[in-house]
Every structure is written in C-alpha cells, then in structure tokens.
C-alpha cells in the first residue's frame, strides 16, 4: 500500500492531469478537484439503499463486484470502484427492465461505509475519459488515493444529471462502497412478480 501511495503521489506530480500534457484541464484544476473532495466529505451510516441484479445473492462479494454490470464502454465503475446502490427506490425500479439494467432481482440493503466522497459524475468524466492514458489504472489509483484519505465509498450526487431520455439518471443519486462487508442485504424482491423471495433471518430459497 505504501508503494502504491508513493507511486500515486509521483503520478500526480508528473502529470498535468490524468490525461497527461496537452489536455485542456491543467494540473491546477486536478489538484483543486482533489482538495474539494477532501474538504466536502459526507457520512453515511445505517442507510437503506437498493441494488438491481441478474442473479440471486444475499451478500456482496468483493471478488464478484461488477461481474453482472454492463458498465461504460471503456470501463465499469462498479468493477473498478465498488458496489453501486441507488438511493431512490422508484428511480431504480424504473431502470430494472430489459432496456436498462435488465435485472431479475432488486435487493434492499443497509450500508455503513462511514466517510464517503461526494462527487459529480460530470466532474469525474472530465478527468477520466477515453483520452485518459491507462484509464482503468488511473481510476484504481484514484480509488487508492480516496482510501488513503479515509474515504470508504462515494456519494454520486448530481440532481441535474439526466439520461438520454431526459429522465433523472441513476448516477444522479447513488452510493458506492469499496467493501462489500459494509453492506447487509435485508430483502430480495423478484422484479417480475414484485414478490419478496427472501428476507433477513429466513433460510435461503432452494
């Protein structure tokens, strides 16, 4: 970990931005963004959230994070940054169909990450784009930096963010946690029938 952090600090010193020299966003704005993140944390404890999935499960496994997520054409935020949850149940439900998440189940969970970074996806995308050199490693380095600053997740907060249909985007109000152990599933609902197929304390269905 110490070596990772040293490499990350060296990376910050050598690059004008994650994209390297010549990109219009300067090192000044990159450092300003990082300082803004450090200065505006949020605390999330005992908070109920929702998660869509194609497969049934009752525990969030860090080794499987993002395996059922289509993600970005260039990279998957789930796979690189951690387990993603919706704050708004109704907004998630409207995105569970075949034209979006194509989920079979909706999980209700309680998360306790504690300190989280508050980010706007539009700000994030200014630094991590198809022009970013080694974009996946750059995002992992960013995650390592967040963890070194004591953050255990990300609160994606951008109320004006909409999807291609002009409707609120899931990323406009979502929470992401770095460790699956910070989440506890309390129920699993079948999306097609609307029935709860499992609740905390019950045996797993056969």
How do the strands and helices of this protein lay out in sequence?
Elements: H1 2-14, H2 27-39, E1 42-44, E2 47-53, H3 77-81, E3 83-86, H4 89-93, E4 105-111, E5 114-119, H5 121-127, H6 135-148, E6 153-157, E7 173-177, E8 183-190, E9 196-199
Parallel strand pairs: 5-6
Antiparallel strand pairs: 1-5, 2-4, 3-7, 4-8, 6-7, 8-9
Provide a descriptive summary of the structure in words.
By secondary structure, this protein is an alpha+beta fold. 28% of the residues lie in helices and 24% in strands. It is built from six helices and nine strands; from the N terminus they run ααββαβαββααββββ. The protein has helices at residues 2-14, 27-39, 77-81, 89-93, 121-127, 135-148; strands at 42-44, 47-53, 83-86, 105-111, 114-119, 153-157, 173-177, 183-190, 196-199. Strand 8 and strand 9 form a beta hairpin. The longest helix has 14 residues, at 135-148. The model is unreliable at 12-16 and 70-74 (pLDDT under 50).
Shape: globular
Overall number of strands: 9
Radius of gyration: 18 Å
- Provide the succession of SSEs: HHEEHEHEEHHEEEE
Tell me the span between the first and last alpha carbons.
42 Å
Share of residues in strands: 15-25%
Low confidence ranges: 12-16, 70-74
Mean pLDDT value: 86
Total number of helices: 6
Structural class: alpha+beta
Strand count, sense and barrel status of the largest sheet are: 5 strands, mixed
Fraction in helix: 25-40%
Strand order of the largest sheet: 1-5-6-7-3
Question: What keyword list fits this structure?
Answer:
6 helices; 24% strand; 28% helix; alpha+beta; single chain; 206 residues; four-stranded antiparallel sheet; globular; five-stranded mixed sheet
């Amino acid at each position: 970990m110490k070596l990772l952090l040293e490499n990350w600090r060296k990376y910050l010193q050598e690059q004008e931005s994650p994209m390297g020299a010549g990109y219009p966003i300067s090192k000044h704005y990159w450092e300003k963004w990082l300082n803004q993140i450090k200065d505006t944390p949020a605390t999330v404890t005992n908070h109920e959230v929702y998660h869509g999935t194609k497969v049934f499960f009752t525990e969030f496994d860090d080794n499987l994070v993002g395996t059922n997520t289509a993600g970005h054409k260039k990279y998957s935020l789930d796979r690189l940054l951690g387990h993603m949850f919706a704050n708004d149940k109704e907004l998630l439900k409207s995105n569970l169909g075949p034209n979006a998440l194509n989920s079979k189940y909706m999980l209700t969970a309680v998360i306790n990450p504690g300190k989280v970074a508050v980010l706007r996806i539009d700000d994030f995308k200014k630094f991590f784009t198809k022009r970013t050199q080694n974009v996946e490693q750059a995002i992992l380095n960013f995650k390592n930096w967040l963890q070194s600053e004591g953050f255990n997740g990300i609160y994606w907060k951008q109320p004006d963010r909409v999807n291609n249909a002009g409707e609120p985007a899931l990323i406009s109000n979502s929470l992401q946690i770095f460790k699956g152990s910070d989440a506890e599933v309390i129920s699993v609902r079948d999306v097609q029938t609307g029935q709860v197929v499992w609740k905390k304390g019950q045996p797993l269905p056969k």
